[in-house]
Amino acid sequence: MKRNIIMVLTILISFVLQTTVFQFFNFGGIAPNLLIIVTASYGFMLGRRYGMVVGFISGLLMDIFYGSVLGFYALIFLYIGAGNGVFHRVFYQNDIKLPLALITVSDLLYSFVCYVLLFLLRGRFQFVFYFKSVILPEIVYTIFVTVFLYPVILLLNRTPDDADKRSDHWFAKKN
Predict the structure, then answer these.
(1) Which of 36, 54, 105, 173 could anchor a disulfide with 42, C-beta 3.0 to 4.6 Å?
(2) What DSSP state is assigned to residue 30?
(3) Helix residue ranges per DSSP H, the chain
(4) How would CATH label the architecture of 2-174?
């Protein structure tokens, strides 16, 4: 129960930070994608199911507030969470290389899919310009923020497990 509450609060706080605070700290109109960080992190930390749920909720928030079609971002984020959930078995908490690599690939795939479905299908073929001016700066900024945000998410996910273990241990001693 605690994990679900922490998960929802993490999504909401990340969404609010991404859409308000980080819009003031943008570089050339580019802000980091905190929801990608949260979705990917929950995917490889807790598995495919959690990644899909976090991704769907994150994408649904994006759809409700900024999307033109309900479900577009929800589906993209859902697949990103599921894809990162595959790496749950090889995830090691103290190694930051795998999370950085997975978040980089997730942000790249997200940006590429958005380019294809939002721009390329409308006849806008300037991929090199879009890559250099939007995708690459967003990836760099997202990775920079990941270095600071990932340990916080890791700590938040470690806390409910420790609390549950402590309460189970107390209950076992009592009886």
Answers:
(1) 54
(2) B
(3) 2-16, 22-24, 34-46, 48-66, 72-85, 97-118, 127-130, 136-174
(4) Orthogonal Bundle (1.10)
Contacts of 26 (CB under 8 A, 6+ apart): none
Give dist(CA 158, CA 156) in Å, integer: 6
Cα 105 to Cα 40: distance, rounded to the nearest angstrom = 10
Question: Would you write out the chain's pLDDT as a tens digit for each of its 175 residues?
Answer: 899 999 999 999 999 999 999 999 888 889 999 999 999 999 999 999 999 999 999 999 999 999 999 999 999 999 999 999 999 999 988 889 999 999 999 999 999 999 999 988 888 888 999 999 999 999 999 999 999 999 999 999 886 555 555 555 544 555 4
Q: Which amino acid is at 157?
A: N
3-state secondary structure 108-149: HHHHHHHHHHHCHHHCCCCHHHHHHHHHHHHHHHHHHHHHHH
What's the rounded Cα separation, in Å, for the pair 4 and 167? 17
CB neighbours of residue 116 within 10 Å: 11
